Amino acid sequence: MTPRTGRAPVKNGGTRRGELLGIAAQLFATRGYSQTTVRDIADEAGILSGSLYHHFASKEDMLREILKEFMDDLLAAFTEIAGKDGTPRERFDALVHTSFATIHERPFAVALYQNESAVVGSLADFDFVGKTSLKIEKLWLSVLQAGRETGEFRDDLETSLVYRFIRDTVWSSVRWYNPRGKLRHDVVAEQYLAMLYGGLLAG
Amino acid sequence: MTPRTGRAPVKNGGTRRGELLGIAAQLFATRGYSQTTVRDIADEAGILSGSLYHHFASKEDMLREILKEFMDDLLAAFTEIAGKDGTPRERFDALVHTSFATIHERPFAVALYQNESAVVGSLADFDFVGKTSLKIEKLWLSVLQAGRETGEFRDDLETSLVYRFIRDTVWSSVRWYNPRGKLRHDVVAEQYLAMLYGGLLAG
Amino acid sequence: MTPRTGRAPVKNGGTRRGELLGIAAQLFATRGYSQTTVRDIADEAGILSGSLYHHFASKEDMLREILKEFMDDLLAAFTEIAGKDGTPRERFDALVHTSFATIHERPFAVALYQNESAVVGSLADFDFVGKTSLKIEKLWLSVLQAGRETGEFRDDLETSLVYRFIRDTVWSSVRWYNPRGKLRHDVVAEQYLAMLYGGLLAG
Amino acid sequence: MTPRTGRAPVKNGGTRRGELLGIAAQLFATRGYSQTTVRDIADEAGILSGSLYHHFASKEDMLREILKEFMDDLLAAFTEIAGKDGTPRERFDALVHTSFATIHERPFAVALYQNESAVVGSLADFDFVGKTSLKIEKLWLSVLQAGRETGEFRDDLETSLVYRFIRDTVWSSVRWYNPRGKLRHDVVAEQYLAMLYGGLLAG
DNA sequence: CATGAATGAGCATTCATTCAT
DNA sequence: TATGAATGAATGCTCATTCAT
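ok -> structure tokens follow
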């Protein structure tokens, strides 16, 4: 049950299956899905590659399961935030903070989502990726829109463009953010919100 | 062997070599480098895969050449802008506009840079990627810093974080920007600058 | 303990072992021995593949046991017929009728015998297949020969060829005979004997 | 170009592709399709297994091509015979003689047809097997039927059963007929026709 | 009797690359 | 320049079998 490497504990249900998924997620995120071989995963787990197929039907299956769990969790978290009381700005704050916190806590899943969702988007078994992404987009857009209506947010910008700019900035940070570095995720979120809200110009 | 000077591979500079590089760039960008086979490229070019080795030493060679030319051009363009007269804000405007214009004009090379630079970053033959990226980063930082010193830009934000936020937003747009769509690249640039400069809040 | 499909009960001793052999026989016959996996058998039996090894030493073991029982039974039946009183033609009638009846009653074992005996013929542990086949051949030849000597059967044909023609026709019918169809096995036997005895020509 | 074993020349177009198909046919027929590995074929051809894929898309592809060519040829031969002048009996004679001659000349393809057509019958890409078999059956049945109408053949037997009996006997002989033995194929055909026409009984 | 995890050998297939022609 | 045949290493996956529990 104890992982044989000193790696930071990866989220799993304490089961062998979950343990293997954690290893796979890390490798997929680090090397890329198609550059990661089934043997790589098995080696890291200390078993033979064929033994993985006792737990999973295919390599694709592992990727799907990792992405599915991540996206379900993410949608649930965002849905909860969007349904809370408070001003649109408060809810938007929470969305951004939660996003950076997610990058901190589940960097491999986020990286996977960033790097592989385009490749995998066309596969029928991965249709949930596009669908969930769309639901998330609608949630964020509804908060942005609500902010315009209350007068908190500017109304002279294309909301859909604003969303894309923000989404790309937030999730791209998985590429340079180091969960074990001294720059904390809530500091990053604060800095981003400060720039986003107040703008780059002085005065 | 065709001389390699003054040629724009992605725009097929008339040479067979450049034509092949353009095909490779498009496929690498669309499917990903490792998902693109040498045979894919050859098929698209109407020759057999083995024949490609008349023009290039390896598949990696093609990627390197595409990235090298792109990054050299990009650095040259940014260097020219940074050296011009005008306020920091004017020069920053030009950097952003040039970036979005580059995405418009050379989407495949930009996508390649976005998607593959992390993977190849460790390879010795691709050290120019990291080096050029660093030079570009210094250029942008110098403009941002100059803006702080002239009082145009806020000075209560971490400049290095600001740079990363901007860089990620700008280049990530290659994933959704459509060069043949009705949303023009200079409009995108204007919208982004409007949001970035003025901030998201009203008033 | 109860099989999960409504399949017609296959001959077995009422034991778990016999039940499993019945499932194996059906699958071996239907898909072919090498195309049937141990897991297929286990799935059909509602257990895990490893659990089969509680009952059998190997997959080959199952095939051997199925074939052995079938061939022993078949040889016993033919031996009894050949030892009975009556004319050679009467005994030959019985041989043919018994063969078609066997196809009706144990189609899976017959199919296995037809399809796999060539493949396993070389294996040392399956030498009983060739030996029993030879004994059966001698029995049939003795009846045919007796018929020639009594003058019932023609003597201008190669007996060994005649035997092969008949054997092949009889056992090949397992491929198209349907035990649950409306064409009964004894009708098939009668038709075959009518053609074989009287010939195809009119008059 | 010269095969390295002393094997009897297998039908092919003198091309490398045809040569490889001949080797595959022989191995498929001898060991069974699923028991034959692509390495077996490659070994026999003196190349590496991967190199086979320069010539064929898959192992299944090889089987399909072998079967397709065989069945097309067989149908063509039978079609020509059925269309000739002469009595039904003469045409039936020709059908049987041609069948045994085919077994002599192309034993591997015939064995493949006998052993694998059932397995492969369900695959969509092999639908030609069933279709061609049906055409051949109709041809034979038309000749048998014509013989009944001219009064040459008995009319008290089920024609479809008669066809199956004959078909099975003829093609099953591929299992024991030795093309290089002293028993010639036309002798086998004569013996079979003698038994079939005149019947087994004396007088 | 059965499970569940694992083995280890093997399989069809892919693919960048080489090279004689 | 390009072809066509081949290499050789690797890849995802299968499967009979073992064994501690």
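The interface with chain A takes residues 31-32, 34-35, 115, 118-119, 151-158, 161-162, 164-165, 168-169, 172-173, 175-176, 188, 191-192, 194-202 of chain B (CB under 8 Å).
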